[in-house]
Design a protein that fits this description.
Elements: H1 7-11, H2 14-35, H3 38-45, H4 49-55, H5 59-82, H6 88-105, H7 107-117, H8 122-149, H9 159-178, H10 180-190, H11 199-215
């Protein structure tokens, strides 16, 4: 990702950096970008607003730096899984388990990500999508293309679209742990809350769905009316 903070921020102790960004993530994830107040963040972080602007030129720069911190945790988990020599469906299972674990442990990061998806500023939304999704999308596309070349998945799939669909499933799963709208959607469909489902149950059912999508190849005639 592009660096959005000033050089002065790099020079402060790591503990202070973490405190400022954690306070920022709390503010942005709970109030959204527009309603978040950089003065409140500075106060809660125990620094002056003048010092805050010494570290970040604008509220947007602070926001983007907070996003970078939150996304790095998720990206590190994805990176470890995707660079392995595991078969694609093994990687998918590990991704699902990581999504469950990270969502339960890092609620505010997932809420922050959800705030990004609701971004109303079109120009900023495009920039955020390119910064956040580009690296992950390449990893997914590459892994699916490799599985396709190795004959491990159905041969009629498009790696780019399947990567997009897979990421959508993972994103929705993460939101279902943390964001009330998505939690309610799950309650409507299943009759229970996310907290009432254990991770094995979630992973096993979703993995069946993914496995059928990646491995069950239908003939063209199967799609005609009456078949």
């Amino acid at each position: 990702m592009i660096k959005h903070y000033k050089e002065a921020f790099e020079k402060i102790p790591e503990e202070r950096k973490e405190n400022i960004l954690e306070v920022g993530i709390d503010e942005f994830s709970s109030k959204g970008y527009e309603n978040a107040n950089i003065n409140v963040i500075a106060h809660n972080a125990g620094i002056s607003i003048g010092l805050m602007y010494k570290y970040f030129s604008t509220k947007e720069d602070l926001f983007l730096t907070c996003i970078t911190r939150g996304m790095k945790i998720l990206e590190d988990a994805v990176e470890e899984i995707m660079i392995s020599q595991d078969k694609l469906l093994i990687k998918a299972e590990k991704l699902l388990r990581a999504a469950c674990e990270l969502s339960r442990k890092n609620i505010k990061y997932i809420k922050l990500y959800n705030e990004i998806t609701a971004e109303k500023d079109g120009e900023r939304a495009v920039m955020l999508a390119r910064e956040i999704e580009s690296v992950t999308s390449r990893k997914y596309i590459t892994s699916i293309a490799q599985a396709l070349a190795g004959g491990d998945v159905r041969q009629d799939l498009d790696p780019r679209l399947f990567a997009f669909f897979l990421d959508n499933l993972l994103t929705t799963l993460q939101f279902s742990f943390t964001c009330e709208y998505y939690r309610e959607r799950l309650r409507i469909y299943t009759g229970v809350d996310t907290d009432e489902l254990n991770d094995d149950e979630i992973v096993n059912q979703l993995l069946k769905f993914i496995e059928s999508a990646f491995t069950f190849e239908k003939k063209k005639s199967d799609y005609t009316e009456g078949k």
